[in-house]
Amino acid sequence: MMTPEDEQALVSHAREIAKILHRNAPAEAIETLEGIEKTVRGQLLEHV
Known about the structure:
Distance between the termini: 26 Å
Largest sheet: none
Order of helices and strands: HH
Strand content: under 5%
Shape: elongated
């Protein structure tokens, strides 16, 4: 089980990652849940 500090850090970092991915995704690619999933997966696979 995560400590409250680790959980807070995880949420904070996830939000920052989401902001970066959103800035770098074409608007039409993130109009649906499926589009968001494909875009995030593609961006992560390119850079990880």
